[in-house]
Amino acid sequence: MEILNVKTRQIKGKKVATLREQGEIPAVLYGVGIEPQSISLPLKEFQKIFKTVGETALLSLVVDSTEPRTVLIRDVQNDAMKQLPIHVDFHQVNMNEELDLDVPLEFTGTSVAVSSEGGILVKALYELPISALPADLPHEIIIDIAPLEKIGDAIHVRDIKLPKGVKVCLDEDQTIAFIEKPMSEEELAALETPVELKVDEVEVVGEKEKKEAEEAAAALEAEEKEK
């Protein structure tokens, strides 16, 4: 289990901008049975560990050199421009209580339907909602696409071999991935054909209404003259 050292944070509110200027990230530690605690940690250290654990692997968090706490990274806010973390939430877990998480799917292997028949692999899901005890949480779930041998073949939730202690929170008939037939030459050509618009075929908005109004006005004027 990765270890991350953090420290108690006294600076709060808008003043946390000074922390970021110093290469630190403001964060919060919370969980069942504990009071939320404001903390901070080095940006570079967090980036290094986050690449390894993501939001589905357990992490040992040490606050001010005290006893390690088992946590999950639950939310990472990023700067819209720089795409750097600017705030992190850590959730201290109870090892005896199940957690509900979305775990990334990792597609591996080679499908004959794709390599030989020109089929297109369509991924219906990229994450899988699961339930498990913290100790049983997988970092990712591997999906082997080798069984997809012909056009129309699909992998469903019921086909996944799950790690011990992990339950999927989806219907077993839910499709995860399937092979779609390639587009024909005619369909591809139709996509590449430019659409031509002729000026005389374009109806000017309001032109018809304008003409009708002019005709009505002329008819009314003619009636007035006859009186």
From TrEMBL:
<dbReference type="GO" id="GO:0008097">
    <property type="term" value="F:5S rRNA binding"/>
</dbReference>
<protein>
    <recommendedName>
        <fullName>Large ribosomal subunit protein bL25</fullName>
    </recommendedName>
</protein>
<feature type="domain" description="Large ribosomal subunit protein bL25 L25">
    <location>
        <begin position="4"/>
        <end position="90"/>
    </location>
</feature>
<dbReference type="Pfam" id="PF14693">
    <property type="entry name" value="Ribosomal_TL5_C"/>
</dbReference>
<comment type="similarity">
    <text>Belongs to the bacterial ribosomal protein bL25 family. CTC subfamily.</text>
</comment>
<dbReference type="InterPro" id="IPR020057">
    <property type="entry name" value="Ribosomal_bL25_b-dom"/>
</dbReference>
<keyword id="KW-0687">Ribonucleoprotein</keyword>
<dbReference type="GO" id="GO:0006412">
    <property type="term" value="P:translation"/>
</dbReference>
<dbReference type="InterPro" id="IPR011035">
    <property type="entry name" value="Ribosomal_bL25/Gln-tRNA_synth"/>
</dbReference>
<dbReference type="InterPro" id="IPR001021">
    <property type="entry name" value="Ribosomal_bL25_long"/>
</dbReference>
<keyword id="KW-0694">RNA-binding</keyword>
<dbReference type="Pfam" id="PF01386">
    <property type="entry name" value="Ribosomal_L25p"/>
</dbReference>
<keyword id="KW-0689">Ribosomal protein</keyword>
<dbReference type="InterPro" id="IPR020930">
    <property type="entry name" value="Ribosomal_uL5_bac-type"/>
</dbReference>
<keyword id="KW-0699">rRNA-binding</keyword>
<feature type="domain" description="Large ribosomal subunit protein bL25 beta">
    <location>
        <begin position="99"/>
        <end position="182"/>
    </location>
</feature>
<dbReference type="InterPro" id="IPR037121">
    <property type="entry name" value="Ribosomal_bL25_C"/>
</dbReference>
<dbReference type="GO" id="GO:0022625">
    <property type="term" value="C:cytosolic large ribosomal subunit"/>
</dbReference>
<dbReference type="InterPro" id="IPR020056">
    <property type="entry name" value="Rbsml_bL25/Gln-tRNA_synth_N"/>
</dbReference>
<comment type="subunit">
    <text>Part of the 50S ribosomal subunit; part of the 5S rRNA/L5/L18/L25 subcomplex. Contacts the 5S rRNA. Binds to the 5S rRNA independently of L5 and L18.</text>
</comment>
<dbReference type="InterPro" id="IPR029751">
    <property type="entry name" value="Ribosomal_L25_dom"/>
</dbReference>
<dbReference type="GO" id="GO:0003735">
    <property type="term" value="F:structural constituent of ribosome"/>
</dbReference>
<comment type="function">
    <text>This is one of the proteins that binds to the 5S RNA in the ribosome where it forms part of the central protuberance.</text>
</comment>
